[in-house]
Amino acid sequence: MATTPKNASTRNSVFEIVRTQLLGVCREHQRDFGAEIRLDSSLIADLGLDSLSLVEAVVAIEQAFGIERLPLEALSEACGEAHFTVGSLVDLCIEHATVLVTADEGMRT
């Protein structure tokens, strides 16, 4: 499926929110955290999240988007924990969010 400009804009907006939440959790657990958070960053290998910090990040992301519960177990089974990336988390948020922020509109939809 081709990505439309609106879809790309939405994905970028969601990525920025996810990145902000992940950065907060990473810095809380690793005071000297300085890694760049990209869509292809592994949550475990690149960002160094352990089970506790991953849960904290997911809860923060769920709250940011008004998601009751992200089904991470389905994603980890499909991708494998080692390949669980920021991009896969962004896609999961887009799929399950009831409230999204779009850059074009500058508002929650």
What does this structure look like?
The chain is 54% helix and 4% strand. Strands 1-2 form a two-stranded antiparallel sheet. The chain is built from 4 helices and 2 strands. A hairpin with a 4-residue loop joins strand 1 and strand 2. It is mainly α and 109 residues long. The chain has one domain: ACP-like (Non-ribosomal Peptide Synthetase Peptidyl Carrier Protein, Chain A).
Q: Under the CATH scheme, which architecture would be assigned? A: Orthogonal Bundle
Gross morphology is globular
Helix and strand content put the structural class at: mainly alpha
Order of helices and strands: HHHHEE
Termini Cα gap: 23 Å
Computed Rg: 13 Å
Read across the widest sheet, the strand sequence of neighbours is: 1-2
Strand content: under 5%
User: Which fold name fills CATH's third level, the topology?
Assistant: Non-ribosomal Peptide Synthetase Peptidyl Carrier Protein, Chain A
The top level CATH class name: Mainly Alpha
Q: Indicate the percent of residues in helices.
A: 40-55%
- Enumerate how many helices there are, as a single number: 4
Which whole number gives the mean pLDDT?
81
Summarize the structure.
With 109 residues, the protein is mainly alpha-helical. The chain has helices at residues 5-29, 51-65, 72-79, 86-96, and strands spanning 101-102, 107-108.
